[in-house]
User: What shape does this take?
Amino acid sequence: MKILVIGSGGREHALAWRIAKSPRVHKVFVAPGNGGTQRAANLENVALSSPQELADFAVREGVALTVVGPEAPLAAGVVDHFRSRGLKIFGPTKAAAQLESSKDYAKAFMVRHHIPTAAYGTFTDPQAAHAYIDEQGAPIVVKADGLAAGKGVVVATSLEEAHAAVDAMLGDGSLGEAGARVVIEECLVGEEASFIVMCDGRHVLALATSQDHKRLQDGDLGPNTGGMGAYSPAPVVTPEIHHRIMREVILPTMQGMSRDGVPYTGFLYAGVMIAPGDDPDRAIKVLEFNCRMGDPETQPIMMRVKSDLVDVLEHAIDGTLDRADIVWDRRTALGVVLASHNYPNTPRTGDLIEGLPADADDCMVFHAGTTMTDGAINTSGGRVLCVTALGDSVRMARERAYDTVEQVRYDGRQYRSDIGWRALKRPPAKK
Ligand code: AMP
Ligand code: GLY
Assistant: This one.
């Protein structure tokens, strides 16, 4: 079989790496891929991006199935296009992808279907937005409605900060279309977890749980980023919490989408906030939906997959996910993101990367913002690499990952040294 993975990040490197391990697969194309996917012997980069070009390529090469990594091609309708040509693809349609591409759509959907989420208002008029902020008080969260590559959310601790965020989004047009409308919502407290499932329109298969580190600096300080590290499983998601997320969030979302006439297929990522404490009834609220896997959550999750992922993807595309299962490695996987100088603002590119180790099943360096020219790997984006390792405990996975981090060198390298700190404080998780 030939498989096509669309995207160029660490998530896509990890997906392609895992898919290539299937004995049924002899070639995985990655469009457009990165330096890491170019370097791997069994992966091949193809420089394509529009839905039309990608579908033409899939036909020409006899690609058996396509998996979409990032949100942009989904929001551009790549799934609708492939399906209209009878090609197998795993992902949500453009209409279903609005769960991520419009925060306002997602919030209205959750209210309509009684899915727990923070109280909110949606505004296009700056004056009304400012008045709402004054009425609600701080802390408060201001979000651009559209896709803003992780730059569209401001968790404001003061009224001044909240007003400034509204001015920046609605006022100066710096976020373009994405910022023409803002959602302002209640600031939730607790512990975040990433809950990712596969959906075939009717059935759901939950992936292993994970947790991300959104802030740039140790101790969860500094600006929000796309994610500086992740691990799986997430001990905060106990079996009881797992059950509640399925019952209170995932299943009503599936049913609600079907009832609204937009059945959901593809990966669905619910970012949830679990209220502090140990009360089994404590609040679980949805912070966001993503219509894709998380990055960097995918990297540790893929390291723990023991089943043939292609079998599972086929069930997902054929609508028979109820017959699929994934066997998970019982070990913990932990990934540390190495970012470039000046990330997340205007990352510097073109720094030479040295000291990359050989691939191993229990320690992989997944690439994101890298290119390979004449055998040399250089930085080409904000998040550069995600060093991901398996270990018998969080501590051991972390030690293995950081030992490898030390070996990889380039100018301007930035990373957090505390990935996994929440998991270290809790008893080990089961799933
Ligand atoms: P989002 O893109 O909506 O996930 O927001 C990015 C990050 O901002 C989340 O992962 C949270 O850390 C934070 N965040 C978003 N919404 C809220 C909220 N209502 N309360 C507290 N933090 C939030
Ligand atoms: N790591 C968060 C995300 O992928 O949205």
User: Anything to note?
Assistant: The mean pLDDT is 94. The pocket of glycine (ligand 2) is lined by residues 212, 226-227, 290, 294-295, 297 (CB under 6 Å). The longest strand covers residues 191-200.
